[in-house]
Amino acid sequence: MKKIGFLSFGHWNPSPHSQARTASDVLLQSIDLAVAAEEVGADGAYFRVHHFARQLASPFPLLAAAGAKTSRIELGTGVIDMRYENPLYMAEDAGAADLIAGGRLQLGISRGSPEQVNEGYKYFGYDPGEGNDHADMAREHARVFLEVIDGQRFAEPSPRPMFPNPPGLLGIEPQSPGLRDRIWWGAGTRKTAVWTAEQGMNLMSSTLLTEDTGVPFHQLQAEQIQMFRSAWKEAGHERQPRVSVSRSIFPIVNSTDRAYFGAESRSADQVGFIDGGTARFGKTYAGEVDQLVKELAGDEAIAAADTLLLTIPNQLGVDYNAHLLDSIVRYVAPELGWR
């Protein structure tokens, strides 16, 4: 059995060819797609976070609204850029959204991806300082966030509070039990996956890795997952970790699918550059169901993960993306033993 969810970047564009032309469109459609995903039997609705872009940016109002409209599926992010976050305020937002959703949040956090603007986190008030690393700043924000959602009490109470306080130091409220175990780190390398395990976070791995050893993408990602699991065991954590991988998968079951994605059946891994370093990008899977099943059965990273996040073309609208999810859950997943 494998959990299957969608991952939306939440693009909007005023083009007449887009079904999501405004920020309002994409936010409301994201909620509707979460509801539709639950109805077709999918397991999760995940949203990407980008700043200074016509994409989803502030996830917690969306997660809370989707949580109030659904009852079963997981709701998450993939990923929140921690360079931009006030970890204490984020902890309040996350706790509240998780309580509204009944403990269904699965939050992917990370250092983040290449930005739309130079050093955008500085406009949000965060500066690693001369000679310091923005990635270290992101990890420090994450460290504080993890501690406070885990119930750390650190604030000295006022001797004359407006309302009565419980005894001792105070912490962030509201607390949502179990949220600490539902935090994931988006790791772009094998080394970062090991660090993720040492911190006791679940592993989230996307359709690219910022390293390349010459082997196919899915094999490099499977090695990343294996290193994560070994490091988790060595760290002695009591619970079992979770691992997700993202894929672009498009079953062709009708003429509309073929018009949109028929040419993607020739897709292959690619090697490029991100932030000045080599990166390997995974292929897109597109084809008729029998072909897809055969190709996906050979993907070692999907086999090693417990959760599969399907990147969706959100600008094609709710109905079409619900159709894509239904095709995978109905036709592809059973053939591969995921259902």
From TrEMBL:
<dbReference type="GO" id="GO:0016705">
    <property type="term" value="F:oxidoreductase activity, acting on paired donors, with incorporation or reduction of molecular oxygen"/>
</dbReference>
<feature type="domain" description="Luciferase-like">
    <location>
        <begin position="9"/>
        <end position="259"/>
    </location>
</feature>
<dbReference type="InterPro" id="IPR011251">
    <property type="entry name" value="Luciferase-like_dom"/>
</dbReference>
<protein>
    <submittedName>
        <fullName>LLM class flavin-dependent oxidoreductase</fullName>
    </submittedName>
</protein>
<dbReference type="Pfam" id="PF00296">
    <property type="entry name" value="Bac_luciferase"/>
</dbReference>
<dbReference type="GO" id="GO:0005829">
    <property type="term" value="C:cytosol"/>
</dbReference>
<dbReference type="InterPro" id="IPR050766">
    <property type="entry name" value="Bact_Lucif_Oxidored"/>
</dbReference>
